[in-house]
């Protein structure tokens, strides 16, 4: 099972100015694939076959469960092919031993949540080919003189003109 945050901001909406006692209904949507977790072993973002709780609230400590999405099977949302694998293992931050924020009514909300079945076949998959950086402290840059002039000369000329005008 992949590690997942307790909750993430997936979408938000802004209501209009309301008078006391008034209410307004907001419809907020977001792609389900944004809830995927990264699997570093397989270089993929994955939605595992489980329940994902949709929380609604005015801020992160004021949410309540509005529904639960039940995914029937694992869905890969992004698959990446690494052309230059790392030469050393990365040390990943883990939440082992950390108790996430919770509130008294959470278990009852989870039990009472409306279950929305979703088929993994309905979720789009993207495939990328990429190269991981493997030596951040070393650079090997070859730039033509023309490129350097085009990138830096104009800015240098402007800076010189401004400094002359201000002196």
Keywords:
alpha/beta; 2 helices; 3-stranded mixed β-sheet; 7 strands; 4-stranded mixed β-sheet; single chain; 167 residues
Series of H and E elements: EEEEEHEEH
Widest β-sheet, arrangement of strands: 1-2-5-7
The helix-and-strand class reads alpha/beta
Ends distance: 65 Å
Largest sheet: number of strands, sense, barrel closure: 4 strands, mixed
- Please state the CA-atom Rg, rounded to the nearest Å: 25 Å
- Tally of strands: 7
Low-confidence stretches: none
Count the helices. How many? 2
In which range does the helix fraction lie?
A: 10-25%
Approximate strand percentage: 15-25%
Shape: extended
Mean pLDDT: 82
Protein name: Fibronectin type III-like domain-containing protein
GO molecular function: hydrolase activity, hydrolyzing O-glycosyl compounds
Family: Belongs to the glycosyl hydrolase 3 family.
Keywords: Hydrolase
Give a brief outline of the structure.
The protein has 167 residues and is an alpha/beta fold. The protein has helices at residues 106-112, 145-165; strands at residues 37-39, 44-47, 51-57, 63-71, 75-82, 114-118, 126-130. The mean pLDDT is 82.
How is the secondary structure organized here?
Blueprint: E1 37-39, E2 44-47, E3 51-57, E4 63-71, E5 75-82, H1 106-112, E6 114-118, E7 126-130, H2 145-165
Parallel strand pairs: 4-6, 5-7
Antiparallel strand pairs: 1-2, 2-5, 3-4
Pfam family, one: Fn3-like
Family: Belongs to the glycosyl hydrolase 3 family.
Protein name: Fibronectin type III-like domain-containing protein
């Amino acid at each position: 099972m992949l590690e997942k945050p307790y909750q993430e901001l997936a979408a938000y909406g802004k209501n209009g100015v309301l008078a006391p006692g008034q209410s307004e209904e907001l419809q907020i949507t977001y792609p389900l694939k944004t809830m995927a977790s990264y699997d570093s072993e397989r270089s993929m973002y994955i939605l595992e076959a489980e329940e994902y709780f949709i929380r609604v609230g005015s801020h992160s400590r004021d949410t309540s469960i509005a529904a639960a999405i039940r995914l029937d099977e694992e869905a890969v949302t992004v698959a990446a092919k690494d052309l230059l694998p790392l030469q050393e293992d990365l040390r990943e931050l883990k939440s082992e031993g950390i108790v996430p924020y919770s509130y008294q009514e959470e278990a009852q909300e989870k039990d009472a949540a409306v279950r929305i079945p979703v088929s993994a076949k309905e979720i789009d998959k993207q495939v990328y080919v990429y190269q991981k950086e493997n030596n951040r402290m070393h650079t090997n840059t070859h730039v033509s003189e023309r490129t350097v002039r085009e990138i830096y000369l104009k800015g240098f000329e402007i800076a010189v003109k401004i400094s002359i005008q201000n002196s």
